[in-house]
Amino acid sequence: MGRCDTAPVGFEITSLSNERIKWLVRLRERKRRDAERVFVVEGPRLYHRALAAGLKPRITFISDQAIDGTVGECVTVAPDVLDKASYRPRSQGLIAVFDQEDSTLGEIERGPRPLLLIAENVEKPGNLGAMSRTAAAAGANAVITVGDAVDRWNPNVLRSSTGAIFSLPIVSSSWDEVGPWLAERDIRVVAASPDAAESLWETDLTGPVAIVVGAEDEGLSEGAEAIADHLVAIPQRDDVVDSLNASVSAAVALFEAVRQRSSGAA
Predict the structure, then answer these.
(1) pLDDT tens digits, residue range 58-86?
(2) Cα(216)–Cα(235) distance, rounded to whole angstroms?
(3) Can you give the pTM of this predicted structure?
(4) 43 and 127: one domain?
(5) Pairing of strands 57-62, 170-173
(6) Which of 79, 82, 223, 236 could form a disulfide with 175 if both were Cys (CB 3.0 to 4.6 A apart)?
(7) Residue 110 half-sphere exposure, CB side, CA atoms within 13 Å?
(8) Which domain holds residue 75?
C-alpha cells in the first residue's frame, strides 16, 4: 500500500488552478461523474470502508499526512485547496476517486428466503443512503432502485449509508425489468402505501419478499401498484403526520420482516 506521508516535505499541490483540483471540482456534478463512470469518497472512514469492501481508488488526495493505509496513487494537497474541492465545507483531510461498479439483478445472491428493498423515485440522497444502511443492518440481499431521480453515487448517499453501499448490491432497474424477474423467482411484492387497508403487522414477511417504498410526497406509481401482491400500511395516528419519511418506512418494514423471521410469526 502507498502512503502519502512518504512524500517530500510540503504539499505536491498548493494551487486551485491545478488541473487535478479542477477535475475534482467538476466531479461534484452528477453528469461529470456519470460521464467518467466514477464516484468520489470524502473522509478516511468511508475511504477505508471502501477499501475493506475490495474497491480500489483511481487516485487519493490527502491534506492530512497523518492518514495512512492509502492504496495506489496518492497525492498530497494543501488543506485549504482540498477543502475547496470538497462536496462539503471541509474535506476531512481526504478525497478519493473510485470507478463506478454497477450491480445487476443477476448478481443478487438470493438464498432460500431473499429479502429485498425496492426504492422507487427516492429523490433525496440522504434517504437512499439511510435505506441502504438499514437494509444492510437488516440482512437484506440487495436494494433495487426504480426511477431516474435516484443518484446512488451522490456523495450524500455514500455518507448517509456509512459505507454500507460499498458491500450491499444496489441495482438500478425498471418495473418492466424487475417485475418479471421477481415473478419468475416467486418473490412476493409488498408495497407500503398509507391508504392501504391491509396492515403491515398482518402481512406474512417470512418467505421470499421484496418490500417497496416510494417517495413520501408522490407515493407509489401505477407500475409499483400493478406488480404488488400486497399493499400495506404502517399503522399510525392520523392526527400526527401525513406519512412517514421514506427511509423510516423502509426501516419499519425491513425490521418487521426480521422480527417475523426470527420468531416464526406470520
Answers:
(1) 999 999 888 889 999 999 999 999 999 99
(2) 15
(3) 0.89
(4) no
(5) unpaired
(6) 223
(7) 15
(8) 4-99
